Amino acid sequence: MQLHLPLSSSDPPVTFVRHRRARRYIIRVLADGTVRVTLPRCGTRREATAFLQRSHPWIAREQAKRRASGLACRAWREGSLVLVDGELHAVSIRGAPPDLIVHVGDTLVARGVDVDATDARPTVERWLRSRAVSELGPRLLALARAHAVTVTRVSVRDQHSRWGACSPRGAITLNWRLVQVPPFVREYVLLHELMHCRELNHSRRFWRHMAEVCPRFRDARAWLLTRGRELL
């Protein structure tokens, strides 16, 4: 759910996220200037909105800091670090037009016409998304067969508030950024959505299913709650 924060006409929308383990309302200004409000399990939209309104001055200051420091664009240039499979790899841009090439660590990402010497982020993101499309679906379906779960459709999308989703009809959506997280975390997210095909909730029965199929689920959740937040 989203609500526009009327600090000015050009401000980005605010995303409200409910988290059952949160004990209070939390506001975060992300690196691109967008705002995320976390609601505790029993929190209300009215209280969250009131908290948001009271925090306008602080939010405006934080957004101004990010604009001034250039964090809002988050460009990936020579030497920038990109997370791939849970490991940081440096971006390397070499050559001169039209023979520029971009590497992420030891991997050749693109050369020539697809390369921007001033910001490699669009090029690297295209590579990451392409890898996500080719890898996430087949892996999810393999896990579905292994655990006798029926999946009706798999799609990979650009999501900014969740890692995956499962519909009541068994259609699963995955975030392309899963190729950036460690393999055991990625596996947890895939299994998490598959177990929703059995239990479309987060009941005790659901978490029993998770414990059976993913013994490291607590470690994976901890990773997503800490480092994973910077990717979304």
The shape, in one word, is flat
CATH superfamily of the largest domain: Metalloproteases ("zincins"), catalytic domain
How many separate structural domains? 3
Task: Could you tell me the CATH topology label of the largest domain.
Answer: Zincin-like
CATH architecture of the largest domain: 2-Layer Sandwich
- The residue ranges in which pLDDT falls below 50 over 5 or more consecutive positions are 1-10
Distance between the termini: 15 Å
Estimated radius of gyration: 20 Å
User: Which CATH class of the largest domain applies here?
Assistant: Alpha Beta
- Give the helix/strand class: alpha+beta
Q: How much helical structure, as a percent, in the residues?
A: 25-40%
Q: Tell me the major beta sheet.
A: 4 strands, mixed
Strand line-up in the sheet with most strands: 1-2-4-3
**Strand-and-helix sequence, N→C?**
EEEEHHEEEEHEEEHHH
Percent strand:
15-25%
